[in-house]
Write a structure and sequence with these properties.
- With 298 residues, the protein is an alpha+beta fold.
- The protein folds into two domains: 152 residues; 128 residues, Cathepsin D, subunit A, domain 1.
- The strands form two sheets. The chain has a ten-stranded mixed β-sheet, with helices on one face. The chain has a two-stranded antiparallel sheet with strand order 1-2.
- Strand 6 and strand 7 form a beta hairpin.
- Helix 3 packs across helix 4.
- The longest helix has 28 residues.
- 21% of the residues are buried.
């Protein structure tokens, strides 16, 4: 008897192909941003995802040699990184590109294992061609699959952030300037070595969190030079009138630090919102032991 032909013919719809790659490129860019703890502009992110999806549609219907396909895919990935994150230097660009490529390979490889090894691909009618994935589902099915992956990855990243934060020394602070004050959660376990021109330590926080203090008349701002893996720069800073540690309902005064202003979020998991100097714990303990134990009531 002749062998039975069990092959299945699948119609490829351009809009479904574009939507599939658009959504999952957006997801990969979002994961990369979370891993790098960088702020994400939705417009830039979605524009970069559109570039990747457009390339997926074009390359899906073209016969491209393997060596050229890999080169073009790498170029498109770099273009997506430039559009999504707008890196300020070559070093940052290379770092972001490397993380994005690793995220793509890891996430894409895991997804393909589920599709093919788990037999899901046969049931969904998925097609992989020129490195591009097509899933034979209606738009609402693709959206449901995307949301499932999004919430799964979001949960994993959140749990990872909580585990990473466990054991970190988070110090509740109150910073006062004039008649106004703000409360911050300072992160002690850091490599912050910044100092002002007078040798005083510098803590870093998000500018939006201390905005009430910045509205004071006659506020004097200084600059602090810094150097990181991402390059050199200047950080705007101010010196508050007073700084307190919050311990229950008591305020324990400590020597004020310069407050450096960052326009970027410091911790996307929101466990803390200020980076304290590396020796803050030691200085804090010394000051507490050598001052009047009476605390100021809140």
């Amino acid at each position: 008897m002749p062998a039975e032909d069990k092959s299945v013919e699948i119609n490829i719809y351009i809009d479904v192909l574009f939507l599939t790659n658009y959504l999952f490129d957006s997801l990969l860019l979002w994961v990369t941003g979370r891993l790098l703890r960088t702020g994400l502009n939705p417009i830039y992110l979605l524009s970069a995802a559109a570039i990747g999806a457009l390339y997926a549609v074009l390359s899906f219907f073209m016969k491209i040699p393997l060596w050229l396909s890999l080169s073009l895919r790498l170029m498109v990935a770099c273009l997506m990184v430039m559009v999504a994150y707008r890196p300020r230097s070559l070093r940052i660009f290379c770092r972001f590109s490397a993380v994005f490529l690793v995220s793509s390979l890891t996430t894409g490889g895991s997804f393909l294992c589920l599709i093919y090894a788990g037999g899901i691909g046969a049931r969904l009618g998925s097609v992989l061609y020129n490195g591009n994935l097509y899933i034979n589902l209606p738009a609402y099915g693709i959206l449901a699959l995307f949301l499932s992956c999004f919430f799964l990855l979001r949960g994993l990243l959140s749990v990872s952030g909580r585990i990473r934060a466990t054991g970190h020394n988070i110090v509740p602070l109150r910073i006062c300037l004039g008649k106004r004050s703000v409360r911050l959660r300072g992160f002690c376990d850091s490599g912050n070595l910044l100092k002002g021109q007078d040798g005083r330590g510098v803590m870093i926080t998000e500018e939006r969190l201390v905005k009430p203090l910045l509205m004071q008349e006659g506020l004097w701002l200084t600059t602090v030079n810094y150097q990181t893996l991402q390059g050199k720069g200047r950080l705007r800073a101010f010196l508050p009138d007073a700084m307190y540690l919050e311990k229950g309902r008591a305020l324990i005064p400590v020597t004020p630090l310069y407050v450096g202003l960052s326009s970027e979020p410091l911790d996307l998991y929101q466990h803390w919102d200020a980076v304290l100097p590396h020796n803050f714990e030691e200085v804090k303990n010394y000051e507490i032991q050598n001052q009047d134990p009476a605390a100021k009531a809140m």
